[in-house]
Every structure is written in C-alpha cells, then in structure tokens.
Amino acid sequence: MRPDDWSLTEDVDVFLARAGDFLRSRPGRHVMQLTWAERVRARGAEAFGDEAPVFGVLERAGEVHATFYRLPPRGLGLSPLTPEQADSLAARLAALGYSLPSVSADHSTATAFAGAWQRHTGATPELRDTRLRLYRLGTLTPPEPPPAGRSRVLGEQDLEEVMFWCGEFAEAVGEVVSLDAGSWAGTRFADKRYTLWETPDGTPVSVAGMNPSIGGQIQVDIVYTPARLRGRGYAAAVTAEVSRAALAAGAREVVLFADLSNPTSNALYQRLGYRTLADWGLYDFTGAEAT
Which residue in 23, 30, 260, 282 has the fewest CB atoms around it within 10 Å? Predict the structure, then answer.
C-alpha cells in the first residue's frame, strides 16, 4: 500500500461523492466518519475552526478501501484500517508536514496508526484512560415492566430544558462546553432530537438523544440520569423509547457508545438488545511533530 494511494481534499462534497457509498455500506463502523462529514456539509467548514477540515480517501483501481477526517484543532478520525493502510497514511501525512494532537478509531486501528505515527514522526502516543465500546442494536427488548411514567419528545419550544439536560450531562462526563442560546447552534448537541422520561406527575428524570439519520444509521447520543435517580429503570425506559423511534424512522442500524468503566450502563444496553460492534481507542500525541 503506497502513501500516495491516499488522496486529500478540503471539500466535504468531493469527499462524500467519492467515499459516500463505501461509508454507507457499513454505516455502524463508519458512524463518526458519516456524522462529522454531515455536520461539516450542513453547517459549513467555518463552523468548526479557523483551519480548513481535511478529508482523505484510500483508493486503488477505482475502489475505496478506507477514509479519514480531521477538523482542526481536533485530532484524526479513522475508518477501520489494516496495519499496512495505517502505515501508508502515517507516511503520507508526515511527508506533508501534518501535526496531529490525537487519533481516534476502533482500538486496533487507533493502535496501528499510533505506532506508525511514532515511527514516522517520533511523536509519543499515549492511550487515554477513557475506554469506549461501540454497540449496534440487534432485537430491541424494552424493559418489562417499564417504570411508572411516560416519554416526552422535546421540541424547539423546549430549548431551555434541552440545554439544561445537556449541560448536566456534559458536567457529569467532564465535557467542557458553553451552552446558551447564543452558542447552542455551534455545539455537537444542537442537531439531536431529545426525549425525556417523566414520572406520572410530570417530573423529568432521564434524557436520551439521537442524531439525525445519516447513511441509513442513527446514533443514540446522549443518555443521562442524575445520580440520585439511578437504579429505577428510567435510563432503560428512555433509551428504549429513543431506540424504538430510530427504528420507526427507518434506520437500518442503530448504534451507541458506552464508557466501559460503567458496567451498569453497559449491562443496561445489552439487556435492551445492543451488541458489541467495536471497542474504541483514542491516543494523544506528544513531542516531536505533535502539537
């Protein structure tokens, strides 16, 4: 696999025209590629920083084998790669003088690229402590019986409530983000549809969101219940409702990420019918050519 088999572009439409069919052929495994490309297409590249995004396609004899994206100052996101493909990409980016703060992908791909980047640039990779697992829905199995209450889909008139719940979620997971009416449209939370689980008296107790349908796939993101209200089945009920809505919307695949350090949530998703698709890895780079 030669480094020059990788072609790069700053134009997301060119990227999707060349790689769209490939990405949609396995939408679950390409969830991040599809999601971020669609966000750039919908919002414009300038919404994500001063530097232009970069998209890449590995293509030989007219056939696409892999892709990547980078939205500076964020790190590199990769589709599944073989070690040879990872090495050819690292060589290509190093030859072009790229600096990378991090890489994220399925664990084996991220590990292969991290090693290749170290060989080609001298940068030191460090695996983050956060360990994620990507799940794909098999047969949805809602909780029986569900907790008392009902689900409620939030609309445009519920922006204040949506921002409150997203802010609570962000704080709980250590995500630093400013959420107010002025900044909302530029956040990763803005393009989701949210559902609350409410107790019989109308008190909201849990929230789940889902991304728009992209390439026949919908990602469930986020799921959050305040600590004081956990263990009562609220997260299971609201996740089941959102999963059901994704299927009703025509999704061929429904996926979600879970933090492996939380065995409770992982067990919950498995009870609902979610099955492991891939473990995820994220490496930070320091020294040498890294920024």
Answer: 260
Report the candidate in 68, 61, 53 with the shortest Cα–Cα distance to residue 23. 68
For 170-190, give one letter per residue: b (16+ CB within 10 A) or e: beeeeeeeebeeeeeeebbbb
Structure tokens at 28: 């679950």
pTM of the entire predicted model? 0.93
Q: Would the pLDDT of 173 be above 90?
A: no
**In Å, how far from its chain's centre is CA 275?**
17
User: What stretch of H or E contains 23?
Assistant: helix 12-25
- Angstrom distance (rounded) from CA 10 to CA 108: 27
DSSP bridge pairs for 284: 102, 126
CB count in 10 Å sphere of residue 63: 8
For residues 86 and 68, the answer to whether their CB atoms sit within 8 Å is no
Residue at token pair 């350090």: 261
